[in-house]
Each structure stands twice: as structure tokens, then as C-alpha cells.
Amino acid sequence: MNYTTTKRDIRFDSFNDAVQYIEKRTSPRNGNGPKLMHNTFGKIWYQDGEPQRVDIMLHWTVIYSIDKNNAITLNSGGWHSVTTKDRMNRFLPYGWRVFQRNFQWFVGREIDMLDLEFEYEEGFRIQLEI
Q: Which residues contact residue 29 at a Cβ distance below 8 angstroms, ignoring those fewer than 6 apart?
């Protein structure tokens, strides 16, 4: 059996980008959310018919979430793996990344050639300025 993985970035620059991307790929057959990559699924949460949050799940762990206020929440679920980091990075907006140095995770942002680093912690939040 020959297996290839999809190597593509799906960058969400806003909540609306995420909703449009997931809605376009959702069908009655994939009610738990469309498959975006190997073992990676997306799901939109609604309240009163309006989208409130988009979750990206790796296996059954929500690793990336963006809400209607354009706030991103990152969560590894304790799985500090190369795959978890890779999936987070594929959905983060340009300029943001999760990386590892000396077995410790960081979240970084490049602004006008200036790198900012923040120590990663579960539930790390990024507020997008739209």
C-alpha cells in the first residue's frame, strides 16, 4: 500500500477564512467535519444558526481553535510531537509559528524582520488584529 500525505498549508488569516474553508468541504457524509489532512479534521460550532468557533482536531485532540472574535487558541493535549507542531503551523497565519528549542516549545512571530518569542503553554492565545 502506497501512502502519501498532503503537504499544504491552510492558513486562516481570520475567523471568516476558517468558516468558509470548512463549510466548503462539509457535507452530510462527514458530519464530524471534513478531513483536511491525514488524521486531521475541521469542525464548525454553531449557536442560533451562527458560526461561533472553528476547531481543528488531530485525532481527537483540538489542537487549533479560532473564535468569532478572531482569537486563536493552541492546545497540544500533551502530545508534544512533530506532527502536532506541524499541524498547528499549517493553520497559523503567516508570520506565526510553533517551534522547539532544547525540548521546549515556543510560539514565534516575525514582524518587520523582528522575531518575537513566547514560551508555549497549553491554551496559548493569539488575538488576530483584523
A: none
